[in-house]
Design goal:
four-stranded mixed β-sheet, alpha+beta, 17 helices, globular
């Protein structure tokens, strides 16, 4: 599947403010120079070894700021097909490659998306040379180690193999399930759903829907318990595995948990939704280290939980399940560190930031919404809703609702949430702020204060978002006239 290279993506990547294993900044790059092409191909090959691929942004310095050194002479020189042909001539096919040229303010950026290699790595098909220099030999394999593209070693090879196995498990489930389905008529629609079978994610949604249709609370309960239990087991055993492989497997189980939560919310299936959400408490407890200032055992586990909760939040926003959204937004962790952590989402995003999985130049977390987009898009597909064109807006709105729902709940932070929406223009976030004024059901579910108190929350969110947005082009205050009047005139 092609990597997203739209304007929102490049903004989110620049806002990280630092390179990482899946992100490389290049101050300049000229496709007509063989040296530039060879060095780029080395980085592309290394990123192909990552389970989710990675990105290269040309025109940025090491902190994601405009380098001032990238000035494309002609747009046609950076046509995706032209660049792809040049890269394929060096690395060979198949290759998952996407690219787009963007202008932000007066600065040009060329964004390259590199998808994961189906075989887990790229074996260089021929020597890579320029100016009498040999950068690699045929049959070399490159991986990302920190922010560098280097030749692999035995440890890297073991990690890649574990990641391949983690990804292939879903395909194996699909094959096994189809074999059982053909051999066992009970798996046909309308028949008995065997919840003990490890179903592929695509079939999982159909099974949950069938159980809901028949009001089979026992079947739903068994499926929910098995899913949560499998996720906890994976999180507990993560220390002995490659971190990315463990995260991939955990993500598969969280996809299933989200399917149960999303579909039971959609069809108001008793208390199953609430129990599914509280299942996240047990899973996060298995990931968490209560006394740790920085997560060390399984940092990517914190990120998987955070991304999947945001994905579910986007679904609930689209379906206007306000009471369910409030349950999700206000979910507390099991380990509160003596009452310090009131929100599981807040704890997870702080731990992700401390692990430097999402940071800007000052070490402040950013990019949660952008990072959650693939997980959210996948969830919409899994529940048969199709990927919405306004996916970014749904995630931004969830971030706003989450902040409002937790306002005043945490004595350590009046917002109770981080203003991730600050990365985006106000037009994406304002519908959520307006909904709280227009929809009495949403208001009752998410905020129990007076108009004056709500206006105070809006002002605080606006002030905080403006400060956060000072590092990039994004939130610049309320633009809607009704919202501006509300925050300016409604006071105690």
């Amino acid at each position: 599947m092609a990597m997203s290279v739209d304007l929102d993506r490049v903004r989110g990547l620049l806002a990280r403010g630092a390179e990482s294993d899946d992100l490389d900044f290049k101050a300049e790059w000229d496709p007509s120079q063989k040296s530039d092409l060879i060095e780029l191909c080395k980085d592309i090959a290394a990123m192909e070894s990552l389970p989710d691929g990675g990105y290269i942004v040309v025109g940025a310095d090491d902190h994601g700021a405009p380098s001032g050194l990238f000035a494309p002479r002609a747009v046609r020189d950076f046509d995706e097909q032209k660049i792809r042909s040049k890269v394929a001539a060096v690395l060979g096919e198949p290759i998952d490659f996407s690219a787009a040229l963007h202008r932000i303010e007066s600065n040009d950026f060329f964004l390259i998306g590199v998808g994961p290699n189906r075989d887990g790595m790229r074996i260089m098909p021929k020597d890579g040379e320029y100016a009498n220099k040999t950068i690699w030999r045929a049959c070399d394999v490159f991986v990302r180690r920190g922010t560098s593209s280097v030749r692999w070693n035995q440890h890297d090879a073991r990690g890649i193999i574990e990641r391949i196995v983690a990804v292939r498990k879903e395909e194996w489930r699909r094959d096994i399930f189809e074999t059982i389905r053909v051999a066992t008529p009970a798996f046909e629609p309308g028949g008995f759903v065997n919840v003990n079978v490890e179903m592929p994610a695509e079939s999982f949604g159909a099974a949950v829907t069938e159980l809901i249709r028949r009001s089979d609370e026992v079947g739903l309960d068994l499926l929910l318990r098995k899913t949560i239990g499998d996720a906890v087991t994976l999180a507990d055993s993560a220390s002995g595995k490659d971190a990315r492989a463990a995260a991939s497997e955990l993500g598969d189980q969280l996809d299933r948990l989200n399917i149960i939560a999303a579909l039971t919310a959609r069809y108001s299936a008793g208390t199953v939704f609430s129990r599914a959400i509280h299942g996240y408490q047990a899973i996060y407890e298995a990931v968490d280290e209560e006394m740790a200032t920085h997560p060390r055992r399984f940092p990517l586990g914190h990120k998987e939980v955070l991304m999947h909760l945001y994905a579910l939040g986007a679904v609930l926003v689209r379906e206007k399940r306000w009471d369910d959204l409030a349950v999700l937004a206000r979910l507390a962790p099991v380990s509160t560190y003596g009452g310090y952590w009131k929100s599981l989402l807040r704890k997870a995003e702080v731990m992700v930031a401390r692990a430097e999985l999402l940071t800007d130049a000052e070490g402040v977390r950013s990019g949660v919404i952008e990072a959650a987009k693939p997980t959210a898009a996948h969830l919409f597909d899994l529940i048969g809703a199709g990927q919405p064109s306004d996916l970014t807006n749904l995630l931004v709105e969830f971030d706003v609702y989450r902040g409002i729902a937790n306002a005043g709940k945490d004595g350590n932070d009046k917002l109770g949430a981080y203003t991730n929406f600050a990365l985006y223009y106000s037009a994406r976030a304002e519908p959520a702020f307006l909904t709280m004024l227009n929809d009495s059901v949403a208001r009752a579910a998410l905020f129990d204060g007076t108009d004056a108190q709500l206006a105070a929350v809006y002002r605080h969110m606006d002030d905080t978002a403006r400060k956060e947005a000072s590092a990039f082009i994004g939130w610049d205050g309320f633009e809607d006239q009704r919202l501006r009047a509300f925050v300016d005139t409604v006071r105690d």
